[in-house]
Amino acid sequence: MIGALATSSETTQTSWWILNSALSPERVLPLVGLGLATALVSLRLGVLTLVALLLGEVVGTLLYDRFLDVMAGVRGATTHAFLTAPFSMLIIGIVLVVSGRFRTCTIPAAALLIGALLAVVTKFTDPTLNDLRIPLSGTIIALWIVVAVGLIGRIFPPAWYTIGTRILGSWLVAIGLLLGGTAIATKPPTTMPQPSGAAPADGLPTGKYRYEPPVQQFTRPRDSLKQGEHKLMP
Amino acid sequence: MAQAHIIQSGTGGFGSGFEHPLTGADHFLAMFAVGLWGAQIGGRSIWTLPVAFPLIMVVGGIAGIAGVPLPGVEIGIALSIIALGLAIACAWRPAEWVALLMIAVFAICHGHAHGAELPNAADPADYAIGFVIATGLIHLLGIGFGLLLGKAFGGRLSQGLGGLIAAGGVYYLVA
Fold first, then answer.
1. Residue of A25, A29, A166 lying closest to B51 (CB–CB)
2. Domain-located, residue A173
3. What is the ipTM of this complex?
4. Which run of H or of E encompasses A64?
5. Partner-chain contact A167 B139, CB within 8 Å
6. What's the structural domain count of chain A?
7. Residue A209's pLDDT is what?
8. Which of A73, A219, B30, B74 is deepest in the core (most CB within 10 A)?
9. In this model, does residue B151 exceed pLDDT 50?
10. Residue A95 domain-assigned?
11. Structural domain tally of chain B?
């Protein structure tokens, strides 16, 4: 019974993580960009890009602590998933905007970096801490997005597709800069404690009436009549 | 006060950011005009103008987020609509760098106005994503319109639209 409940709870946590982290726009957009980029290169380079993405996930898992140490000093990083989303978007956005020759050279490197950042954010947001289903789900979803977008992208005429991907790449760079700018440039909200009077030594309220009633007493004209004070009729 | 630049504190996720440029006519007109003008100029400008706009816009956006003051932003936005509208109406085809320089100046104004209100959004990250995607889609709409219907009536349809956009800019300058 307990085992069944535990399994159910873990499944719920995995589902929650998939919906709230693995499919969040911050994670999906760089992968969509990577998928768009793979459609711009040869099939062989596209496969190499996928391998680089997987290799990057391994590298990111191994260098997780080191990355967090480095980024901990950056303002706003700890509250914004260590800026993994802005970095990923900037990397793939630049790859999409630049010319074809540069793109061909940089796609595998970009995939490696994005994979590493993806592994970092996966581990960072993992609610179970040790459930293998979380990184596995994240990897499968990432591969699925890149492959699906990459295959769809090959349908379009190359000339128009290149124009479209350049425009989309500029959006990714813009989003990455805005996300990073929001994290770094925005001052965190400061919460000040409510001002309160010093507590008396005996713990009781101070003032003229130590046991002052919450509502001030008042006497209505008819109250005196109730208490037996009859007025004589004229 | 320009229409697209009012955000209530505590609101603003992806949906709010996405609908922001679509519901604010001043921003919509400027973005549409950038795409339309790029298509009208033709060649590389079809994509260089819409690519340059968001890239420069974020510079203004980050300045706005950081609280760097930029006086006359709203006037700059209204002037951007007028200038872009007139460029289309006159079918002006300047050198690429001139067009990019114009776009850059206007993009900083638009970016600053939106960046200044970004920290007020409940979820600035999702707000920014929705906002940039909607902006890009308006660019694409302008490019698509320019390429598909720009040649109709000897290009007069695009020029007429440019005139209407410029008139809209005058309205925002006066209002």
1. A166
2. yes
3. 0.75
4. helix A64-71
5. yes
6. 1
7. 55
8. B30
9. yes
10. yes
11. 1
